[in-house]
Specification:
Radius of gyration: 19 Å
Structural class: alpha+beta
Number of domains: 1
Largest sheet: 4 strands, mixed
Number of strands: 7
Strand content: 5-15%
Number of helices: 7
Distance between the termini: 36 Å
């Protein structure tokens, strides 16, 4: 999440991930082939042996200010997670470096890695799975080639298979991301005993964090409404609290139409 300081209002919510899709011809990468095989075994013995992905690195300063806490977050969703944890989890307060943006170590280039939140011995990361390209980045894919393999395989799927293949790929990317984060966390002796929760959507965050740690969690529908409201309460420092400019390309298309 914090590796991309963009306004995540444009990010889709993580989908409900169905069971692993049936085998499709020409999987987008050999790693997905491996994932399909190990996923069935994992359902039987509930193991957590997953592939890995380079962990996120520390990102530039955030741009979404929560006036009440004074913290500048990297995304609107991150600010909403913090505000609702403070509201529903007794004793939690967002404190930079202690319960928010917890440093876990440096990579070989000297860049600091961090985790979004800490609740006692539990670390929490809000990370919507990304399967779209943004500038020079290719979502949670490890390379341009892997991203293109996914696109090509998705195009070859029948209409019925497309949704299953996309959901399976997102589950694979989520597991790979989480496994690499766990590897980085456990490399830090001070955090080796901690648990990691990765939430990919507001609904996922509700079930994995709020329902688990709150003595009186709200109903899901109410929580989702509050999540949306909290996202709207932060100040976007890039525009000094004003609305961002309209998308020019979209405006041209409307005029041309």
């Amino acid at each position: 999440m914090s590796m991309t300081p963009a306004d995540d209002d444009r990010l889709p919510s993580g989908p409900h991930i169905p069971p692993s899709a049936p085998h499709l011809e020409g999987a987008f990468s050999s790693q997905l082939h491996i994932f399909r095989k190990t996923e069935n075994a994992r359902r039987e013995d509930v193991s957590e042996d997953e592939d890995s992905l380079d962990p996120k690195l520390s990102s530039p300063p955030g741009r979404f200010l929560n006036e009440e806490s004074g913290i500048v977050f990297h995304s609107r969703s991150e600010a909403a997670c913090s505000a609702l944890m403070e509201r529903f989890i007794p004793g939690f307060r967002a404190i930079e470096g202690a319960t928010y943006e917890i440093p876990i170590g440096c990579n070989k280039f000297g860049h600091m890695r961090s985790i979004d939140f800490r609740l006692g011995n539990t670390l929490v990361e809000f990370h919507p799975v990304r399967i779209w390209r943004s500038g020079r980045h290719f979502g949670d894919f490890e390379s341009r080639e892997e991203w293109h393999e996914f696109l090509n395989e998705h195009r070859r799927c029948s209409r019925r298979e497309k949704a299953e293949f996309k959901a399976e790929t997102m589950r694979f990317l989520e597991d790979r991301y989480a496994a690499k984060r766990i590897q980085a966390i456990h490399a830090n002796p001070a955090l080796a005993h901690t648990e990691l929760i990765v939430a990919t959507s507001p609904e996922d965050f509700y079930y994995k964090v709020i329902e688990r740690f709150s003595p009186k969690p709200p109903h899901l529908e109410d929580f989702l409404e509050m999540f949306h409201e909290e996202k709207g309460n932060v100040i976007d420092l890039r525009y000094n609290g004003r609305r961002p400019p309209r998308n020019r390309a979209g405006s041209r298309r409307r005029k041309d139409g």
